[in-house]
Amino acid sequence: MTRKPKIPERGSLLNNSMDGMDELFNFQTKEESAAEKQTEKVSGENTLVEMEFAYMSAFPDHKFKLYTGQRLDDMVSSIKEYGILMPVILWHHEGLYIILSGHNRVNAGKIAGLTKCLVIIKENLSYEDAVLIVTETNLRQRSFDDLSPSEKAYCLKQHYEAIKCQGKRNDLLNEIENLLNPSEIKENETLSENQKRLRSDEKLGEEYGLNRDNVAKYLRIATLVSPLLEMLDEKKISMKSAYDLSFVKEEFMQTMIADILVSGEVVLDTKKSALIHDYAKNKTLTEERIEQILKGEKTKKPKSTAPQPIKVKGNVISRFFTKQESKKEIEETIEKALELYFARMSEEKEQLVG
User: Fold this and answer.
1) Which part of the chain is the ParB-like N-terminal domain (predicted)?
2) Which residues have C-beta within 8 Å of that of residue 233, sequence separation ≥ 6?
3) Which of 170, 190, 220 finishes a domain?
4) Which letter, b or e, does each residue of 307-330 get, where b requires 16 or more Cβ atoms within 10 Å of its Cβ?
5) pLDDT higher than 70, residue 55
6) Same domain as 242, residue 190
7) Are 119 and 84 in contact (CB under 8 A)?
8) β-pairing, 56-57 with 88-93?
9) CB atoms < 10 A from the CB of 144, how many?
10) What is the DSSP secondary-structure string of 39-65?
11) Radius of gyration of the chain (CA)
12) Would 300 be classed as within a structural domain?
């Protein structure tokens, strides 16, 4: 029996750093499998070989959803008539053959009655390389606009982290382009211009047709627990509310919110999510407050713990400063004066105590 890869906990794939991701897959060494016997005659990478679906494993915890409805029916009909025309891309890692590109083709092929297809096997990939192939191939075949909100968030987060971690990878992107036959990619599909320099968040937004703020929002939304992401896809919560909830860092609190919303007893509107956002940023959010907010019992924003700004009156400024002095010079002088004042006050207190 083919061993399944260990699925990492939520957050390990969508955290703020991709450090140590090579250790995510806790595979054990196994004896040569039937799948390996099928491919033992293959030499070198990117060689086409036929493999049975039974020996292929899905990429762990990726968020791209399988086709359903008419799109799936059309793919099944096409496969019945023409077969699977584009090879599935696999990652050979510790004895497993993990699908990087082709989850929908394999699924539709099984429905169509097939048991195997042509594959291209990739060797010696890092985890970041594998993530990049998964995200790029999905985007090239679907386009960013076709993805659900949770898929967009996942894709942007994984793509951003993979590129930030491994740097410029035009070599790998060019290889993906060749494997997928770029002549069939529509002009408006995302990431068709792979010659662009791989990017910071500004470059990422430019590639996806998003402004920087939208990229930041999707990157935050990607940190939500799966039930909340599903509600976002099902339009049970809005993008604004999903963004607000992303400021709740504690997973158990996010899960609690999801459980309450699933119960159907309350509805999350943007006013409630904004309150949760404010309390989370203020670091005063508790389980009790979550219940009160969702049930409409708490409607006021938390009091800010930050000191209130003050203004110095114009006549005071004119007493001590000239018109030629800049705002920065005035601020620096006031800061020095306050330091001297409090230092003197401290000395006087010490003398009184002495």
Assistant:
1) 52-139
2) 148, 149, 150
3) 220
4) eeeeeeeeeeeeeeeeeeeeeeee
5) yes
6) no
7) no
8) unpaired
9) 19
10) HTT--STT-EEEEEGGGEEPPTT--PP
11) 28
12) no
